[in-house]
Structures are given as structure tokens and as C-alpha cells.
Amino acid sequence: MSGPKLFEPSEVGGLSLANRIVIAPMCQYSAEDGCMTDWHLIHLGQLALSGAALLTIEATAVEPEGRITYADVGLWDDATEAAMARVLESVRRHSDMPIALQLAHAGRKASTDLPWHGGKQLAPDHANGWQTVAPSPLAFAEGENPPAALDRDGLTRVRDAFVAAAHRAARLGIDAVQLHGAHGYLLHQFLSPLSNRRDDEYGGSLENRLRFPLEVFDAVRAAFPADRAVTMRVSGSDWVEGGWDAEQTIAFAQALETRGCAAIHVSGGGLDPRQEIPVGPSYQVPLARAVKQAVSLPVVAVGLITDYEQAEAIVGTGDADLIALARTILYDPRWPWHAAAHLGGRVKAPDQYLRSQPRQYRSLFDVEGSAES
Known about the structure:
By secondary structure, this protein is of the alpha/beta class. About 30% of the residues lie in helices and about 15% in strands. It is built from ten helices and twelve strands. The chain has helices at about 40-45, 80-95, 150-170, 185-190, 205-225, 245-260, 285-290, 310-315, 325-330, 335-345; strands at about 10, 15, 20-25, 55-60, 100-105, 135, 150, 175-180, 230-235, 265, 300, 320-325. It has an eight-stranded parallel β-barrel, surrounded by five helices. Strands 1-2 form a two-stranded antiparallel ribbon. Helix 1 links the parallel strand 3 and strand 4 (about 55-60).
């Protein structure tokens, strides 16, 4: 009998992956002036020992004003690059798991407080706040300070900031870059007709709304080494009538494919407080399936994927090529181990942990080539 599809090797843009499980980017709101701290070393270090195929670093702002909160990670100067380099050096000393980096700009959803402090927007005159920017001067929620609409110089500045961060990521040896075009952040704001009300060539028609995100993708693809992958994360739907939807997502995915996008990660929502999301197990998988049927590049599904058989079914039926874990792997950092044990797969574990292999799962760990320390 063949083994579980979830634990078959895969490839994204020339990057070889040991299985079909990727760790989604998850903001930690624990940076200092954009610089990673010891928390990131602990957080990323444990996930790098999880047995997943790819670790994606959280949304990393390409300029200070692009942070969601004042405690977000950034990659915009030598200090932020050095801080990330220190964390990566330690993680790589004990794990050979490939590492991707999500580059992001929060747009109108920037300048907020920490989630555990309520996450409300901070006014520009607040000590930890600043003036936000967006495609159009439309606030995310009623009562918030509206963003400033980006002019031509602003568009150039933001695009160049993505490029500069991609150069820094390349120097850091990052294996792949993901552009954040989901969850209501800046690139998503350009895509959706609910947040993009521009009357120039960057607004109105679908072609115009795709223009700036595609310009950013093209610029980053040109800046990042050609032999390393550049991918995109999208929201497959705004879950609001008249907003961004699966049909427009497919058009965007097809345009990205022609430009050399290595994979597309399909999430959902985040753009409008009026969203009505049908939350439940695999609730976003139909969005990934729709994209998968329209393109040939690898598609990643995410969203309340918690069960081992559920994950196997998603990749086994071809709804997606890979599954991404976020909250699930925070709750259970050894989820890939447990999935492999349940499904009859094999997973890499560090030498120091080999003796933890349960007696009933003697073929669980892939001992050959395990990480050295």
C-alpha cells in the first residue's frame, strides 16, 4: 500500500519539501522597534523541530508604517536585519527545515495596539501610533482615523520598500518569500473594490485593482534570487457582498502564475468588519479548491485544519497541494509527529528527541540525516 499523501515529498519553486505540511506565518507582537527578540528565537526554534516541511516567519513589515502594531517584526534597516540574522543563525544550528519569510504592509490596518490589550487603532498622536496609508482614504472601521491615500510617490516608496526587504531576505539566506496579499492588509486593500475607490489606473476595474499588487510581485520577483521561490498569500473572499471573491482570486492567481509565482496560499477575510465568515473545519478549503482547478502552480489550504484525517483528505483528494497550520501548531507543536504516527508516515526528529519515539510507532522517525547539534 502507498503511504499517506500528507507525508509525500513536494516541491515549490525548486524548493524541496519533505512533506505537505507548512507552518503558516503567525504574528507574535513581540518585537522591539521592528527587531526580533529572544521570544522569536524560542517560538521559531520549537516550530523548526516540529517535523513540518516549511517554516514561515510572521508578517514582516517592509517599513515602520507598515506594521500592524508597534511590536511587529520588520526588515527595513540594518538593525532589523541583524536581529533576524541572530535568530536565524541559532535556529539553523539545530534544524535544516527550510525557512520562508512573509513580507507585508498593513496599510489602513496598521497603528493598532497589541491584541491582548484590545487591538484597537492608535491615533497618529499616540506614543505608539502613526498615520496610516491605503489605496483610498477609507477607514477600516467606523470611528477610526482614516488613512492617507497613497500618491504616486507613495506607491513607489512602498514598492521599493518591498524590494529592499527582499534584498535583505536574500542576504539572510531565506529560502522563499511570501507576499502578504490577504487579511485586509495593503495589497489586499488594492485588490478589493470595498477598500479601493481610486479613479486612476490603480482603481476601478479588476485589471486596475490588480495592477499595484502585481507591480510589487514583479519587483520582488526581480529582486529575489531567481532560484528561490516567491509566493503570494491571498484572501479568497472578503465574505461581504460586492467585495473580493473567488472568481477575482482566480484571475489574480492566473496573472501571478504567468509572472513566475511559485505557489499561492489561499486564506480568507480580514478586509471589512461586516464580513460573515462560515467558520468551521476546512471552511476555506473550497476557496483553495477553486484556485487549484484554475492554475497549475501549487496551492496551499489553511483554516481550522486540526484533524489528521482531515488534512490527509485535503491533499489526498487534490483540493490543495499542501496544508498550512497556524493556531493548530501553536497548540500542538508536535502535530506533524502525531499526524505521521496516526497515518503511518515518517517524520524527521532531532537526535536529542529520538528516544521519545513511542514503542508502538517504531518506524515513525526518519533517523538518517536527522539534525545534528
